[in-house]
Amino acid sequence: MPEMPEMEAYRQNLIRWALGRTVVGLDAPRPKRLNQPVDVVRAAILRRPVARIERRGKSLALILGRDNSAPILYIHLMLGGRIRFVLEDQEAAVSCYLSDNHAVYFHVGLGRIDLMDHTALAARWDKLGVEPLESEFKPGLLRRAFHARRRSIKACLTDQNVVSGIGNVYSDEILYRVRLYPGTPANALDADDWEALDTTIPEVLSEAVTRGGVGEPTDPDDRLTGGYRTHLQVHYRAGARCGLAGTVVKEEIAGRTTYWCPSVQMPRS
Q1: Which of 126, 156, 180 is the last residue of a domain?
Q2: Does the CA dihedral 144-150-153-158 come out positive or negative?
Q3: Residue ranges in the chain modelled with pLDDT below 50
Q4: Which of 73, 29, 34 is nearest to 51 (CA)?
């Protein structure tokens, strides 16, 4: 599932590819991926300009117009989701055609594309936690939210109601860097652990955003996406040596496939 760095890479690529162009068509071979009938969505967005492309956490919003009544396409890709600007062998769930012979193909996986207005978008994004690379992510926020909880620290980091945008990949990388076992209960962390997380979360995510995350390029001209994959220390690397000479293992923790290194992230008794 694309996380914040991947969705930010999609946002930047969509600015390059779609911003300022006009919607000239819409196809949806998988209409259940839309929240309204295809004809309703098509009528709402046809001949509308792509005026802004915004991101919050793991979701994007294509704002089609410059007025307050402009329709919005809200994109939440979820598991297996990706965005392409060129045709693939696999048919896209939703295809949006733009002026100048451009198109955006949404392979939304288990996700959705919802037509909504500004009020609905604000209500949906108000439910999300803070952005980890913005000033609203302040030292002590995580500790205040979770220090008394028995939930695993991995489950805490992926709680979108507190900090938005961190999922399986980056929670593993963050916890490896601070040498915490992902299954450690949050109430077992000490002050140094929480301080290390406050520092490491923006460090890891900033590096991942700069390198375009771990996704696949949107098109042959995409020089941004996927550069962080070669910098992963544990995720996707079961059986390999981690950066500190341990061997990465894979197991389910907090209901999620998790990669970690027992030599570096020793469980606490």
Answers
A1: 126
A2: negative
A3: none
A4: 73
The residue among 103, 80, 87 whose CA lies nearest residue 18 is 103
Residues 182 and 97 reside in one and the same domain = no
Q: Please indicate, yes or no, if residue 108 is contained in any of the structural domains.
A: yes
Is the pTM value of this prediction over 0.90? yes
| Residue 140: other Cβ atoms inside 10 A | 12
- State phi, psi for 121 to the nearest 5 degrees: -65, -45
Token code pair at residue 211: 């390198």
For 30-67, how does the pLDDT look when each residue is reduced to its tens digit (9 = 90+)? 999 999 999 999 999 999 999 999 999 999 999 999 99
Question: What is the β-pairing status of strands 94-98 and 23-27?
Answer: antiparallel
108 and 222 belong to one structural domain: no
Q: What integer pLDDT is reported at residue 196 of this predicted model?
A: 98
DSSP state, residue 38 = H
Domain boundary among 102, 126, 150: 126
For β-strands 112-116 and 94-98, DSSP reports them as unpaired
The residue type at 183: G
CA proximity to 26, closest of 55, 46, 10:
46
CA distance 186 to 145: 10
Answer yes or no: is 70 within a domain: yes
Q: What is the 3-state secondary structure (H, E, C) of 40-102?
A: HHHHHHCCCECCEEEEECCEEEEECCCCCCCCEEEEECCCCCEEECCCCCCCCCEEEEECCCE
* Residue among 106, 46, 102 at smallest CA distance from 71: 46
CATH number at residue 236: 1.10.8.50
On whether the CB atoms of residues 143 and 162 are closer than 8 A, the answer is: no
Q: Are 119 and 39 in contact (CB under 8 A)?
A: no
